[in-house]
């Protein structure tokens, strides 16, 4: 960033000592205090420093107080080896500088009683690339001028009339002409009232113009008149001289001090970034990006795992484990056995343990042994099949009962044939003899049938 600084002071229409003081450090890195008119300065990393101090006390050496203030500020900044890291630390440093100036003025009065009652205001600007840090105590002002934007002060006067302005009782123009406009509420050097320094931080942009001044300027010219000069005069030297001239033309009742600070465009040297720094920053960026991706991937896997786990049925820890069937007692799901030319399904036979109620557990299917399909098998027949089987058995028994018992040597075919009475009588006797030997009497139904046949 390229800057330009110009500063000047004038006694005004007053006769006597100029009680105003100012200081400019164009390059704080090299502790280079001073400036050259119209010099284009490359703003260093430590920045530049400007201040205006308006002494008061008249015969009580107001010029001494303002001179002590600007010297202490230079000493404090010269002792600064590196720029504080944060904005808060920078602002704290500015307050420390102003407090040191106050204490030095108080100490001077103790050692030099003839200067008792002296004091000074102060406004301090510390510009670091892209930012401006402001601190003030008293009614010395700092303005910012941007093209197309009305001029406005960045500081609030520590004065009686400005308190009335903030309360809405009077306007800024009325405050400038107020008979008590010279009464200030804050200053450096009063041993009974330590300064309450105010601070402000603003961003700097190309084309910005900063104006630091003592009240000898703004008490003679209002803000619109000051803005007109800053707009019409682009050169810092000509603009400063014209401001002082118009203040003197308006009365020049006080000393007039002006510092103009212009912000020009940035240089290629300043915006260039070393290749090593760029590579390192790129590596750091990639590493940080990879870390973020890794963390997000891990979280995504956890979420997906949780969702998938929600769809898997979980078994209760109290649920018994399915028992495997023993080798000597196989579980038979279904089998078919043939018996006496009657095809009959062989039912399922479970092991001693009951099957699990959980449908997820399925017992293996084991085929029945081929050698003896009905050994150790307990038939289980459906009601319909049982009814058919029982009916078949009843019919078979009835058929057997209705058929007369004949000797083993007698052909069954001959017993069913119709016999003559003589043959029937002979068979009856033979049957009775056989029944008596076997203790198996002939059923009554058979007798009835025999009687009917006779």
From TrEMBL:
Record-annotated PPM-type phosphatase domain positions: 4-263
Family matches, as SUPFAM superfamilies: PP2C-like
Keyword terms, alphabetized: Membrane, Transmembrane, Transmembrane helix
Molecular function in Gene Ontology: protein serine/threonine phosphatase activity
Region (Disordered) residue spans: 350-454
Stored Pfam families: PP2C_2
Polar residues: bias regions: 432-442
Signal peptide: none
Regions crossing the membrane: 292-312
Compositionally biased intervals (Basic and acidic residues): 376-402, 410-431, 445-454
PANTHER family: PROTEIN PHOSPHATASE
Protein name: PPM-type phosphatase domain-containing protein
Species of the source: Adhaeribacter aerolatus
Lineage: Bacteria, Pseudomonadati, Bacteroidota, Cytophagia, Cytophagales
